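hiii so my PI (J.) wants the whole complex modelled not just the main chain, which honestly fair. so below is everything: two entries, each one labled with what it is. i double checked the lines twice but i was tired so who knows lol
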Amino acid sequence: MSAVKPAPRAVTPSRRRAARAAGRTGQYLALAAYLIFLGFPLLWLVSVSFKSPQELGSIDPTWLPRHPSLDNYRKAFDTQPLLRAALNSLLVAGCASVIAVAIAVPAAYVMVRYRTRVSQAGTVWILISQMFPFVLIVIPLFLVLKNLHLINSLTGLIVVYVVWNLPFSLWMLQGYVKAVPRSLEEAAAVDGAGRLRVLTGVVLPLLTPGLVATLMFSFVTAWNEFFFALVLLKTPEKQTMSVILTHFTGAEGAVDLGPLAAAAVCATLPTLLFFALLQRRLVGGMLAGAVKG
Amino acid sequence: MRAGFPRGPRRALALAAALLCLGPLAGCGSGSDDGVVHLDYLSLAWQQESVEANKALVEEWNETHPDVQVRYVQGSWDDVHDQLLTSFMGGEAPDIIHDDASDLTDFANGGYLADLTGYLPGGLRSDIPQESWDTTTYDGGIYGVPFLVEPRVLIANTRLLQESGVRIPTTEHPWTWEEFEEVSRTLTRDTDGDGERDTYGVAWSMKEPVTQSVNLSLSTGGRLFYREGDEDVIRYGAADASVAELINRQVNVDHTAPDSSLGMSGSDTLPGFFAGRYALLPLNFSYRQQVQQQAPDGFEWSVLPMPTGGGEYGLAQGVAPQTLSVAEDSDHKQAAVDFIAFLTRADHVVDLARGDWMLPTSTTALADPALNTGEYGWRTGVEIAAQLRPSPVLGVRGYPEWKDKVATPAFQEYYAGEFGVDELRDRLAGDGNRILDRYQR
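here's the output for the full assembly
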């Protein structure tokens, strides 16, 4: 006796539309939850920065400050040279990221387009260099910079950040260079363009999204870096934002939470702005890097 | 046709060039060829009043000593060890260094700190008790001036204490540890009758359990670290373990202390304290500043001495004072010590102590009326000061490694009820002595 299979129920267009709408709603809900998860620390930081010490000591914390006040910001700016520190960070991060990218572009191009033993060794070097912990190199680095009279100098810190950022910048840019079709370069060469002209006139414009992504990565890394800045800069006038933030903490976990939150908001804003300005190009860069030529 | 960069990269190059021009300018430092001695003072003051007091004193010094100019450099407690280690290795350490006595051992042994014995003025030597000098003395050399100290005290919710009818302890008649256990039981209450405790007698913040476990053991005649010949050894006998066992009992047997506070720092316990969930908080003396700042309007709190193990021990507890040291590499050691003597002058150190909400080690400063006030528990601290002892961990080589690798996890697990005191002893002394041996070979 053969089993009779039930006929599949026809899916009506209206049911399909409803399922699609439900799926879309679920997607948006998941996205909203993810955004809240990502944004929570920042939102909480902003909230704390406007709260009074009494409110911070409350056992029932609220999202919105009950009596919002700018006192924490006032205290943070009164006690620490935040503006000066922000300018120092801007200078150091700006210089370091631009220089690292300027060096990384031709280097990445050569490593991708000329597959020699040297370029392969370079790739291995990039990987190895990422394995060294800060503490292992900081004392030798300190001695080298001392001999070069670059201790307690923003120039010295820029040099360190360029070297520190260079391997990953190279790694990132190699992916973008690979995505540029070689045929475009060959076409330019056929039209009489030299190697430099090909690089600057053909490859670089196509690399713009990758440049922006790499620049942003280098900038944020240098902006947030703490340990090198701590040990290399001595005078208060030269200290960067990440170092100044630690001045709001005491021994054994004691912390001046309100002013610290206010200073941390100030330290976060430039990177947020930088990201907001460049994010469209960054997304474009990611897509460009993901597509094979 | 000239090969050129597209617009974007060309602009980026211009920006890089401009920033590079600014870089060296920003890196310029002031010269010191003017015959004036320039000293760097690394200060770890962090509370606003303390930073202001320090800066005001530096300014006053610079005005009155045109030939020795001091530059105020602010550091951070979190990273001072790494910062100093790198600076010492590179020969670029600040001349005058603010730190705490527990951090000096390795630096003094490494030869990075100057022996101040021949530089200190007699007045300063005699004004600070020998107990305090002992905290910075290694192998006969003095490697720092101990100038501020903070004992552990009990911060109490005054209303809950009064309502419970328990005896209020004083420095002359403190609670014994047994009495403290009983008081904690009395203060622990289920006010709404739902079977859940609404108020705990005490909240032990044990995020960093080692220092307080070791230092409070002095109140029962313990000390964990003993000197045998030329070597430090760890023993964990009944007297050493007495306070730790009491804490364990309160958390895991009596439930007069919540287990939720074991992972907290002192600051984390304050909201619960203000809300009446905890009646007593064992905290460092300087936490009074946060309590005063964060307490809701009308909230009454008081400062009580820690309990004692008995009359023979008094209010003894271990402390590691804050110190001022001079780098061995400094070319102007006498000038640096003169500045330290200026900072620690009785009237000046009172300002620093008040700024940090700590106690001065100077006996003259301790007698200052500004500190002998009932307000915010200052007087309780002053009365305890004479009974403070050097923390047993001071001068022990290998202590930081023992603390991080052995003692911190062992105490945390013990207080959480993971194992008993025998296992704790095996870990602290067994594993610990192997670490100390390595440093003492």
